[in-house]
Amino acid sequence: MANITNAVNTYTTRIADLPGTEVVFGVGAERRLPYLLEKNHVTSLLFVYSGTYVYDLGIRDAVLNAAKELGIKVIENGDVQVNPRLELVHRLIEEARANDVDFVIAAGGGSAFDTGKAVALGKNYDGDVWDFYAEHRGREPEHQVLGVGTISTLPGTSSEVSFASVITKGHLKGGASPIAIKPAFTIINPEYSRTVPYRYLAAATVDMIVHNLEKYFTPNAPLALVDQLEENIFRAEYEAAERFAADPGSLQARADLHWLSAYVNPQLRSLDATGPQYTIHEGVIHIIEHSLSGVFDIVHGEGNAAVLIALVRYEASRHPEKFAKLAVRVFGADPYLHTEEENALLLADKLEELIVGKLHVPIRLSEQGVTREGLDEVLDQLGNLNAYPIGHYTQLSRDDVKALLDSAF
């Protein structure tokens, strides 16, 4: 594992290998771009991003200069938005075909990465790429998928090293997860996250925590070691989030978040393969949030924050076991003086203390622009995409999800 402190303090880079993804981490990591592009035999490149940060941080210059050095043609687009849209993906696929693109670099956070992966998936596909986000979900493509590289400016989603992509079509969010779109490399310079508005960094930090906890809320995990790893990673994430909240400008604090996002969390997710039961990991928080943000276009991490705490409180009286166990293991709750329900509620309190009290992420849906009038559409989408009941650790009916969301207003 790379030494984060050394990478930050000496302004050097360290390289670590993840399955299928080469991670270049540290201040100055972008200097490895020519090597990475040459290694991946790139001849025509699509560069996608959003906003002006690629100019402000010198990312655009780094990409264009590396491409010029190697004689690589570059097509660029900066129209990516939060909750990325299928319409842009379609347009970029056509541009990629017209320019014989053979590689995609996406710079930013999850939205840019999702867009880049979707283009990589769709460029050589005869049908509509949306097929892989709807009826072909989970299916590996039979056609050649373009290589993908990412330049991370926002820790949290782990999308910079994962094979997940989420795209929005109208009010419907769809997810694709073929291994073929896992990035070939990612560049992570923790200096880059300094220009990201605090709101989005804080929300992404919550998203990272949710990704980990969804693995913890898994039924019948075959190894006690799995729970212990997740408990310790949650502890590390909680403490890193506290340090970041106390000093958002700290390079070290942001480096810790980047490393947790890019290395620790995805490595833990590889444990999904330890047995047939554990492959059915709990993803109900993301499932609900995707329908919420599909309808209301809210910030993903903020939506996850609302659903996470509402879920723990709602389930405390029904299925408190895992929530109580986490409270005991991480926060020292007493399993003898308090009931499992009481300890589950303590966990909700500790999460709220971090998310609202320190990170200042809103957990009331009314603060995020969600209205009760639109909940029926959210509930309909959930049922159409996943079929009720949803969830594995606890199974939620339509009425359960409605009650859970009502409690979050």
Automatic annotation (TrEMBL):
Stored Gene3D superfamilies: 3.40.50.1970, Dehydroquinate synthase-like - alpha domain (1.20.1090.10)
InterPro entries: ADH_Fe/GldA, ADH_Fe_C, ADH_Fe_CS, BDH-like
UniProt keyword annotation of Oxidoreductase present: yes
Pfam family, one: Fe-ADH
Keywords associated with the record: Oxidoreductase
Organism: Bifidobacterium amazonense
PANTHER family per record: ALCOHOL DEHYDROGENASE YQHD
Domain Fe-containing alcohol dehydrogenase-like C-terminal: 202-409
Superkingdom of origin organism: Bacteria
Domain Alcohol dehydrogenase iron-type/glycerol dehydrogenase GldA positions: 21-190
PROSITE patterns: ADH_IRON_2 (PS00060)
Protein name in the entry: Iron-containing alcohol dehydrogenase
